[in-house]
Amino acid sequence: MNTTLVATGLLGDTVARDYSRKLSDFNSFAEPELRRLIASLQLRPGMHALDAGCGTGEALEWLLEEVDPDGQVCGIDLSEPHVTVARSHSAARIRVLQGDLLHPPLEPNSFDLIWCVNTLHHLHDPVQGVRSLATLLHPGGRIAVGQSSLVPDMYFAWDARLEQVTNEAVRRYYRERYNLDERSLTGVRALVGVLRRSGLKHVHVQTIMIERVSPVSAADETYLLETLFRNTWGERLRPYLSPDDYSQLLRLCDPRDPQFALRRTDFHFLQSFTLCVGEIP
User: Fold this and answer.
1) Beta bridge partners of residue 278, listed in sequence order
2) Mean pLDDT of all residues in 244-259
3) CB 3.0-4.6 Å disulfide test: which of 2, 73, 156, 220 passes with 216?
4) pTM of the predicted model, to two decimals?
């Protein structure tokens, strides 16, 4: 494995950085919504599609279903661990490459659609990223950029105050952990502007809510418990909450506690997902 550890992007990504479990859990959690969004793109058999920032590759098969029987699908990701996972469960006819989106090892004018989810916010210059990807499209090809909220937002139907302080604590942690300020988040919040400044035409956008209430499915519980409760909240939030608020939050995150959030009858989770689509001239 290439173990070069030079960090690139706002979130310190490297070739060796590995958050495969988080990506797989999110794709399993959001699969129904992501599949509907892919279907809304009205791909046709025979088209060529690229998943730019494919992560662990679950969307590669979903894209292939839309362009079968004679279409082609390719994935590319900076992380070699992610590429290894994606290759392990992708059909043999799907190419999965390790590479930098700003210098993709792909032929220009090769694709009809580029699907790019939760990736642009890793770049220092999202416009440059979109322009680089646009060179890979046939004339009239499209880029579909998807972005979930930078961190999950929990809706505490039973305690609005605890909801507010917890979500703010998460934002403070991420700002300090990655040395971000609000200006750094433009690439997340301004997808329409990013695509238009990149020279794309006919830009349109839709935002959906990924919404779950109790009882949740096994895939939903895995994502919420592992990615949110243990890896987004947990000990890292202790410095940003009062002792009482932190104690309440721990109880909500603990499957052994009677107040465990996913067992509450009033549990309600909301996470936005925005898909912005543009076409090259």
Assistant:
1) 143
2) 95
3) 220
4) 0.90
